[in-house]
TrEMBL record:
Keyword Transit peptide: yes
Source superkingdom: Bacteria
Positions of the COQ9 C-terminal domain: 122-192
UniProt name for this protein: COQ9 family protein
Amino acid sequence: MAELPADPTLDEVRAYLAPLLPAHAAFDGWSAEAVTLAAGQAGVDPDIARLAFKDGALQMIDAWFRSVDHRMAEQLPAERLAAMKIRERITALVWARIEIVAPDREALRRAFAVLAMPQNAARAARMGWRAADLMWQLAGDKTTDFNHYTKRMTLGAVYGSTVLALLDDDSADLSDTRAFLDRRIENVMRFERFKADIRSRAEHRPSLSRFIGRLRYPAI
Protein backbone atom coordinates (compact mmCIF):
# COMPACT_ATOMS: atom_id res chain seq x y z
CA MET A 1 0.00 0.00 0.00
CA ALA A 2 1.55 3.28 -1.18
CA GLU A 3 2.03 6.08 1.33
CA LEU A 4 -0.42 8.95 1.45
CA PRO A 5 1.14 12.33 0.51
CA ALA A 6 1.67 14.86 3.30
CA ASP A 7 -1.06 17.17 1.97
CA PRO A 8 -3.38 14.78 0.09
CA THR A 9 -6.31 15.66 -2.12
CA LEU A 10 -9.69 14.11 -1.40
CA ASP A 11 -9.21 11.84 -4.43
CA GLU A 12 -5.95 10.59 -2.92
CA VAL A 13 -7.62 10.01 0.44
CA ARG A 14 -10.39 8.01 -1.24
CA ALA A 15 -7.90 5.88 -3.17
CA TYR A 16 -5.81 5.32 -0.03
CA LEU A 17 -8.71 4.23 2.16
CA ALA A 18 -10.65 2.30 -0.48
CA PRO A 19 -8.93 -1.09 0.01
CA LEU A 20 -9.52 -0.85 3.78
CA LEU A 21 -13.23 -0.09 3.59
CA PRO A 22 -14.67 -3.57 2.87
CA ALA A 23 -13.23 -5.11 6.05
CA HIS A 24 -15.26 -2.60 8.05
CA ALA A 25 -18.26 -2.50 5.74
CA ALA A 26 -18.71 -6.23 6.33
CA PHE A 27 -19.74 -5.43 9.92
CA ASP A 28 -20.92 -1.82 9.84
CA GLY A 29 -22.30 -1.63 6.32
CA TRP A 30 -21.20 0.94 3.75
CA SER A 31 -21.55 3.69 6.32
CA ALA A 32 -19.81 6.66 7.87
CA GLU A 33 -18.76 4.36 10.72
CA ALA A 34 -16.85 2.15 8.27
CA VAL A 35 -15.09 5.25 6.93
CA THR A 36 -14.13 6.35 10.44
CA LEU A 37 -12.75 2.92 11.30
CA ALA A 38 -10.77 2.73 8.04
CA ALA A 39 -9.36 6.20 8.72
CA GLY A 40 -8.28 5.14 12.21
CA GLN A 41 -6.62 2.04 10.80
CA ALA A 42 -4.71 4.11 8.24
CA GLY A 43 -3.86 7.03 10.50
CA VAL A 44 -5.96 9.48 8.47
CA ASP A 45 -7.85 12.38 10.03
CA PRO A 46 -11.42 11.00 10.34
CA ASP A 47 -12.98 14.37 9.47
CA ILE A 48 -11.03 14.46 6.20
CA ALA A 49 -11.95 10.83 5.52
CA ARG A 50 -15.66 11.50 6.03
CA LEU A 51 -15.38 14.53 3.76
CA ALA A 52 -13.77 12.38 1.07
CA PHE A 53 -16.77 10.04 1.22
CA LYS A 54 -19.43 12.65 1.86
CA ASP A 55 -21.65 11.16 -0.88
CA GLY A 56 -22.09 7.97 1.09
CA ALA A 57 -22.27 4.30 0.25
CA LEU A 58 -22.13 4.56 -3.54
CA GLN A 59 -18.97 6.65 -3.39
CA MET A 60 -17.40 4.13 -1.01
CA ILE A 61 -18.31 1.15 -3.17
CA ASP A 62 -17.13 2.92 -6.31
CA ALA A 63 -13.77 3.68 -4.67
CA TRP A 64 -13.38 0.05 -3.60
CA PHE A 65 -14.16 -1.20 -7.10
CA ARG A 66 -11.61 1.24 -8.52
CA SER A 67 -9.02 -0.18 -6.16
CA VAL A 68 -9.90 -3.65 -7.46
CA ASP A 69 -9.34 -2.35 -11.01
CA HIS A 70 -5.93 -1.08 -9.98
CA ARG A 71 -4.86 -4.30 -8.27
CA MET A 72 -6.03 -6.40 -11.21
CA ALA A 73 -3.97 -4.32 -13.63
CA GLU A 74 -0.94 -4.59 -11.34
CA GLN A 75 -1.23 -8.38 -11.09
CA LEU A 76 -1.57 -8.84 -14.84
CA PRO A 77 0.80 -6.42 -16.63
CA ALA A 78 0.82 -6.20 -20.41
CA GLU A 79 3.92 -8.37 -20.85
CA ARG A 80 2.32 -11.21 -18.91
CA LEU A 81 -0.98 -11.01 -20.80
CA ALA A 82 0.82 -10.83 -24.16
CA ALA A 83 2.01 -14.42 -23.71
CA MET A 84 -1.58 -15.67 -23.42
CA LYS A 85 -4.29 -16.41 -25.94
CA ILE A 86 -7.32 -14.12 -25.82
CA ARG A 87 -9.44 -16.66 -23.96
CA GLU A 88 -6.71 -17.09 -21.34
CA ARG A 89 -6.36 -13.32 -20.95
CA ILE A 90 -10.06 -12.77 -20.27
CA THR A 91 -10.22 -15.73 -17.91
CA ALA A 92 -7.13 -14.54 -16.03
CA LEU A 93 -8.48 -11.00 -15.69
CA VAL A 94 -11.88 -12.08 -14.40
CA TRP A 95 -10.32 -14.58 -12.03
CA ALA A 96 -7.89 -11.97 -10.69
CA ARG A 97 -10.85 -9.80 -9.74
CA ILE A 98 -12.60 -12.75 -8.10
CA GLU A 99 -9.55 -13.56 -5.98
CA ILE A 100 -9.19 -9.91 -4.96
CA VAL A 101 -12.79 -9.54 -3.73
CA ALA A 102 -13.17 -13.09 -2.36
CA PRO A 103 -11.83 -12.31 1.16
CA ASP A 104 -14.48 -9.57 1.48
CA ARG A 105 -17.56 -11.51 0.41
CA GLU A 106 -19.79 -10.09 3.14
CA ALA A 107 -18.88 -6.53 2.14
CA LEU A 108 -19.50 -7.50 -1.48
CA ARG A 109 -22.91 -8.91 -0.57
CA ARG A 110 -23.78 -5.65 1.17
CA ALA A 111 -22.47 -3.67 -1.80
CA PHE A 112 -24.70 -5.62 -4.18
CA ALA A 113 -27.69 -4.89 -1.94
CA VAL A 114 -26.95 -1.16 -2.26
CA LEU A 115 -26.37 -1.32 -6.01
CA ALA A 116 -29.59 -3.30 -6.53
CA MET A 117 -31.71 -0.38 -5.32
CA PRO A 118 -33.64 1.15 -8.27
CA GLN A 119 -32.23 4.62 -7.66
CA ASN A 120 -28.70 3.24 -7.98
CA ALA A 121 -29.21 1.25 -11.19
CA ALA A 122 -27.50 3.77 -13.49
CA ARG A 123 -24.44 4.09 -11.23
CA ALA A 124 -24.23 0.31 -10.87
CA ALA A 125 -24.35 -0.11 -14.66
CA ARG A 126 -21.52 2.41 -15.09
CA MET A 127 -19.37 0.53 -12.57
CA GLY A 128 -20.00 -2.75 -14.35
CA TRP A 129 -19.22 -1.23 -17.75
CA ARG A 130 -15.98 0.29 -16.41
CA ALA A 131 -14.78 -3.08 -15.13
CA ALA A 132 -15.61 -4.87 -18.39
CA ASP A 133 -14.08 -2.10 -20.50
CA LEU A 134 -10.83 -2.17 -18.52
CA MET A 135 -10.58 -5.94 -18.80
CA TRP A 136 -11.00 -5.81 -22.58
CA GLN A 137 -8.48 -2.96 -22.84
CA LEU A 138 -5.93 -4.92 -20.84
CA ALA A 139 -6.66 -7.96 -23.01
CA GLY A 140 -5.65 -5.89 -26.05
CA ASP A 141 -9.06 -5.28 -27.62
CA LYS A 142 -9.00 -2.42 -30.11
CA THR A 143 -12.44 -2.78 -31.70
CA THR A 144 -14.37 0.42 -32.36
CA ASP A 145 -17.44 -0.97 -34.12
CA PHE A 146 -20.55 -2.58 -32.66
CA ASN A 147 -18.40 -5.45 -31.38
CA HIS A 148 -16.78 -3.00 -28.95
CA TYR A 149 -20.09 -2.74 -27.11
CA THR A 150 -21.27 -6.34 -27.39
CA LYS A 151 -17.96 -7.63 -26.02
CA ARG A 152 -18.23 -5.44 -22.96
CA MET A 153 -21.88 -6.21 -22.33
CA THR A 154 -21.17 -9.92 -22.60
CA LEU A 155 -18.12 -9.79 -20.33
CA GLY A 156 -19.98 -7.64 -17.83
CA ALA A 157 -22.68 -10.31 -17.63
CA VAL A 158 -20.05 -13.04 -17.21
CA TYR A 159 -18.27 -11.18 -14.43
CA GLY A 160 -21.50 -10.24 -12.64
CA SER A 161 -22.83 -13.80 -12.70
CA THR A 162 -19.45 -15.16 -11.54
CA VAL A 163 -19.46 -12.78 -8.57
CA LEU A 164 -22.93 -14.04 -7.64
CA ALA A 165 -21.60 -17.60 -7.84
CA LEU A 166 -18.75 -16.57 -5.54
CA LEU A 167 -21.17 -15.33 -2.89
CA ASP A 168 -22.68 -18.81 -2.57
CA ASP A 169 -19.47 -20.80 -2.97
CA ASP A 170 -18.55 -23.01 -0.03
CA SER A 171 -16.08 -25.16 -1.97
CA ALA A 172 -12.40 -25.46 -1.16
CA ASP A 173 -10.21 -22.98 -3.07
CA LEU A 174 -13.30 -21.54 -4.80
CA SER A 175 -13.34 -24.52 -7.16
CA ASP A 176 -17.09 -24.20 -7.81
CA THR A 177 -16.70 -20.55 -8.79
CA ARG A 178 -13.77 -21.38 -11.06
CA ALA A 179 -15.76 -24.12 -12.77
CA PHE A 180 -18.67 -21.71 -13.21
CA LEU A 181 -16.37 -19.10 -14.78
CA ASP A 182 -14.84 -21.65 -17.16
CA ARG A 183 -18.32 -22.63 -18.38
CA ARG A 184 -19.33 -19.00 -18.92
CA ILE A 185 -16.11 -18.25 -20.82
CA GLU A 186 -16.74 -21.28 -23.04
CA ASN A 187 -20.22 -19.91 -23.80
CA VAL A 188 -18.71 -16.56 -24.74
CA MET A 189 -16.14 -18.15 -27.02
CA ARG A 190 -18.86 -20.13 -28.79
CA PHE A 191 -20.84 -16.93 -29.27
CA GLU A 192 -17.81 -15.12 -30.68
CA ARG A 193 -17.17 -17.99 -33.11
CA PHE A 194 -20.82 -17.86 -34.14
CA LYS A 195 -20.60 -14.11 -34.81
CA ALA A 196 -17.40 -14.58 -36.82
CA ASP A 197 -19.09 -17.27 -38.91
CA ILE A 198 -22.09 -15.02 -39.59
CA ARG A 199 -19.81 -12.15 -40.64
CA SER A 200 -17.84 -14.45 -42.94
CA ARG A 201 -21.01 -15.67 -44.62
CA ALA A 202 -22.28 -12.10 -45.01
CA GLU A 203 -19.06 -11.05 -46.73
CA HIS A 204 -19.45 -13.82 -49.31
CA ARG A 205 -23.19 -13.37 -49.84
CA PRO A 206 -24.18 -11.91 -53.24
CA SER A 207 -24.82 -8.19 -52.97
CA LEU A 208 -27.81 -6.72 -54.79
CA SER A 209 -26.23 -3.26 -54.86
CA ARG A 210 -23.01 -4.62 -56.39
CA PHE A 211 -25.04 -6.55 -58.97
CA ILE A 212 -27.02 -3.44 -60.00
CA GLY A 213 -23.80 -1.46 -60.13
CA ARG A 214 -22.32 -3.95 -62.59
CA LEU A 215 -25.44 -3.64 -64.77
CA ARG A 216 -25.04 0.14 -64.86
CA TYR A 217 -21.28 0.15 -65.23
CA PRO A 218 -20.24 -3.10 -66.91
CA ALA A 219 -16.58 -3.97 -66.81
CA ILE A 220 -14.76 -3.10 -70.04
